[in-house]
Amino acid sequence: MIARRPTILIFTVRPDEALLREMCAGIEEEGVLYDVIAQPSGEAEALAALASGMSMLGPGLALVGQATALHIKGMTDASPLLGYAHTTPQQARNIGADSARVIKKLPLRMGEHEV
Length: 115
What we know:
It contains 3 helices and 5 strands. A 5-stranded mixed β-sheet has the order 2-1-3-4-5. The chain has helices at 17-29, 44-54, 89-104; strands at residues 8-13, 34-38, 59-64, 67-72, 82-84. The protein is globular, with a radius of gyration of 13 Å. The termini are far apart. Helix 1 (17-29) runs parallel beside helix 3 (89-104).
Protein backbone atom coordinates (compact mmCIF):
# COMPACT_ATOMS: atom_id res chain seq x y z
CA MET A 1 0.00 0.00 0.00
CA ILE A 2 1.26 3.47 -0.90
CA ALA A 3 0.42 6.13 1.65
CA ARG A 4 0.00 9.66 0.39
CA ARG A 5 1.54 12.38 2.49
CA PRO A 6 -0.47 15.44 3.48
CA THR A 7 0.30 18.06 0.84
CA ILE A 8 -1.29 20.84 -1.13
CA LEU A 9 -1.89 19.52 -4.63
CA ILE A 10 -1.07 21.77 -7.57
CA PHE A 11 -2.55 20.55 -10.86
CA THR A 12 -0.91 22.05 -13.94
CA VAL A 13 -1.51 22.18 -17.68
CA ARG A 14 1.34 23.73 -19.69
CA PRO A 15 2.20 26.02 -16.75
CA ASP A 16 4.15 29.24 -16.95
CA GLU A 17 7.29 27.99 -15.18
CA ALA A 18 8.11 31.35 -13.55
CA LEU A 19 4.62 31.52 -12.07
CA LEU A 20 4.86 27.93 -10.86
CA ARG A 21 8.13 28.75 -9.06
CA GLU A 22 6.48 31.74 -7.37
CA MET A 23 3.42 29.71 -6.36
CA CYS A 24 5.60 27.01 -4.83
CA ALA A 25 7.76 29.64 -3.08
CA GLY A 26 4.65 31.09 -1.45
CA ILE A 27 3.71 27.67 -0.09
CA GLU A 28 7.28 27.00 1.08
CA GLU A 29 7.37 30.35 2.93
CA GLU A 30 4.49 29.08 5.03
CA GLY A 31 6.23 25.77 5.76
CA VAL A 32 3.70 23.48 4.06
CA LEU A 33 4.45 20.62 1.65
CA TYR A 34 3.10 20.48 -1.90
CA ASP A 35 3.04 18.19 -4.92
CA VAL A 36 2.89 19.38 -8.53
CA ILE A 37 0.92 17.03 -10.78
CA ALA A 38 0.75 17.59 -14.54
CA GLN A 39 -2.66 17.09 -16.15
CA PRO A 40 -3.36 16.53 -19.84
CA SER A 41 -6.01 19.26 -20.07
CA GLY A 42 -8.54 21.27 -18.11
CA GLU A 43 -9.53 24.70 -16.85
CA ALA A 44 -7.94 26.23 -13.75
CA GLU A 45 -11.17 26.45 -11.74
CA ALA A 46 -12.19 22.82 -12.34
CA LEU A 47 -8.68 21.48 -11.74
CA ALA A 48 -8.35 23.42 -8.47
CA ALA A 49 -11.65 21.95 -7.28
CA LEU A 50 -10.47 18.45 -8.22
CA ALA A 51 -7.12 19.00 -6.47
CA SER A 52 -8.83 20.20 -3.30
CA GLY A 53 -11.05 17.12 -3.27
CA MET A 54 -8.01 14.85 -3.54
CA SER A 55 -5.84 16.73 -1.03
CA MET A 56 -5.63 15.47 2.53
CA LEU A 57 -5.23 19.09 3.69
CA GLY A 58 -8.15 20.70 1.85
CA PRO A 59 -6.77 23.42 -0.44
CA GLY A 60 -6.18 22.69 -4.11
CA LEU A 61 -4.34 24.86 -6.63
CA ALA A 62 -4.27 24.88 -10.40
CA LEU A 63 -2.03 26.63 -12.89
CA VAL A 64 -3.10 26.44 -16.53
CA GLY A 65 -0.75 28.55 -18.62
CA GLN A 66 -0.98 31.85 -16.74
CA ALA A 67 -4.39 31.22 -15.15
CA THR A 68 -4.45 30.26 -11.47
CA ALA A 69 -7.16 29.13 -9.07
CA LEU A 70 -7.38 28.20 -5.38
CA HIS A 71 -10.25 26.02 -4.20
CA ILE A 72 -10.95 24.76 -0.68
CA LYS A 73 -12.46 21.32 -0.01
CA GLY A 74 -16.00 21.63 1.27
CA MET A 75 -16.81 24.93 -0.45
CA THR A 76 -20.41 24.77 -1.57
CA ASP A 77 -19.87 27.19 -4.45
CA ALA A 78 -18.20 25.80 -7.56
CA SER A 79 -16.24 29.05 -7.93
CA PRO A 80 -12.69 29.15 -6.61
CA LEU A 81 -11.82 31.13 -3.48
CA LEU A 82 -9.22 33.01 -5.54
CA GLY A 83 -8.39 33.03 -9.22
CA TYR A 84 -6.60 35.09 -11.84
CA ALA A 85 -6.82 34.79 -15.62
CA HIS A 86 -3.45 36.51 -16.22
CA THR A 87 -1.52 35.96 -13.01
CA THR A 88 1.39 38.21 -12.05
CA PRO A 89 4.39 36.76 -10.19
CA GLN A 90 3.27 38.46 -6.95
CA GLN A 91 -0.26 37.06 -7.32
CA ALA A 92 1.20 33.58 -7.88
CA ARG A 93 3.29 33.85 -4.70
CA ASN A 94 0.29 35.15 -2.73
CA ILE A 95 -2.11 32.46 -3.95
CA GLY A 96 0.46 29.81 -2.99
CA ALA A 97 0.90 31.35 0.45
CA ASP A 98 -2.86 31.71 0.90
CA SER A 99 -3.38 28.02 0.15
CA ALA A 100 -1.02 27.22 3.03
CA ARG A 101 -2.49 29.91 5.29
CA VAL A 102 -5.93 28.26 4.99
CA ILE A 103 -4.45 25.12 6.57
CA LYS A 104 -2.74 27.13 9.30
CA LYS A 105 -5.92 29.17 9.93
CA LEU A 106 -4.09 32.46 9.36
CA PRO A 107 -5.43 35.58 7.61
CA LEU A 108 -5.10 35.42 3.84
CA ARG A 109 -2.89 37.76 1.83
CA MET A 110 -5.53 38.03 -0.98
CA GLY A 111 -4.02 40.84 -3.01
CA GLU A 112 -1.45 42.05 -0.50
CA HIS A 113 1.44 43.87 -2.21
CA GLU A 114 -0.39 44.13 -5.54
CA VAL A 115 -0.22 47.26 -7.64
